[in-house]
Amino acid sequence: MDGILVINKPAGMTSHDVLNRLRKMYHQKKFGHTGTLDPDATGVLVVLCGKACKVLQFLRDTDKKYIGQIALGFSTTTDDISGEVLERKPVNEDFDFAEVLASFKGELHQKVPATSNKRVNGQKLIDLQRKGKEVPDVYQDVTIYDIQALDDYRFEVSCSSGTYVRSICRDFALKTNNLGCMKSLQRIQVGRFSIEQAQTLEDLEHQEPILYPIEMVLDHFPMIEFEKIQDVYQGKRISLDCEADMVCITENHHPVAIYQRENGSTFRSKRGLW
């Protein structure tokens, strides 16, 4: 089975659990995903199947869209509701929800949750916390393209890859003189793949998987139908007359390899896709 599968991940499963379930279901080892969802989170998990696993390093279309919900009145070790409560404080409701949310729009220097897979000196922050070691404050630059208020402290946010929605929830609380964390999270879009396209694991028990072609996530590369295709299969350097420094070589309009400019018109194989 080769292609891209869009899964609607249920709560209570890790992204790795989903891949293991697919391996057992289809008796195939090669599955990978394009971005982890926490166990309590639900929604879009883009899964690469078979040969599609080879394109992971070339993905660019990885912006995300979420629906998050904020819980006020307490902070936790994980910045979400599954963590241990650190502190409680009476809720201050003297703020305009939509107005405060709007202040997050744009480029953010966001503090990463202590319980995250972000690495410092080769170690994950979550592993440092589990070992009882001091977890340093780590920040990363992200972009919030749009953020809109919904009901019951829920909001929809479109953001760059690497954004932590639980950090938005935590920081929203601090901006409003509160303590808070993320109550729930649903990912409704990854790049061009939306929740409407997603199948549940239960769906796959009695439905055929809907597989999207690899070329869908490679369309930022020029597609070049190369005549001496055996040279490509053999990993040989080839000569191309094109402006782009990286291209997708195709055979019968199907991706075969990614080639990168070495010098002048000479390109070398970056990754075979067959």
Descriptive terms for the model:
38% strand, 274 residues, single chain, 6 helices, 5-stranded mixed sheet, alpha+beta
Compose a concise summary of this entry.
This protein has 274 residues and is of the alpha+beta class. It has helices spanning 15-26, 97-102, 125-130, 165-175, 201-206, 229-233; strands at residues 3-9, 31-33, 42-49, 64-72, 74-76, 85-88, 106-111, 119-120, 123-124, 139-149, 154-159, 180-190, 193-194, 211-212, 223-225, 238-239, 246-251, 254-263, 266-272.
Commentary on this structure:
The structure is a single chain. By secondary structure, the chain is α+β, with helices and mostly antiparallel strands. The chain has helices at residues 15-26, 97-102, 125-130, 165-175, 201-206, 229-233, and strands at residues 3-9, 31-33, 42-49, 64-72, 74-76, 85-88, 106-111, 119-120, 123-124, 139-149, 154-159, 180-190, 193-194, 211-212, 223-225, 238-239, 246-251, 254-263, 266-272. The longest helix is centred in the N-terminal third of the chain and has 12 residues, at 15-26. The radius of gyration is 22 Å and the shape is elongated. The chain starts with a strand and ends with a strand. The model has no long low-confidence stretch (mean pLDDT 94).
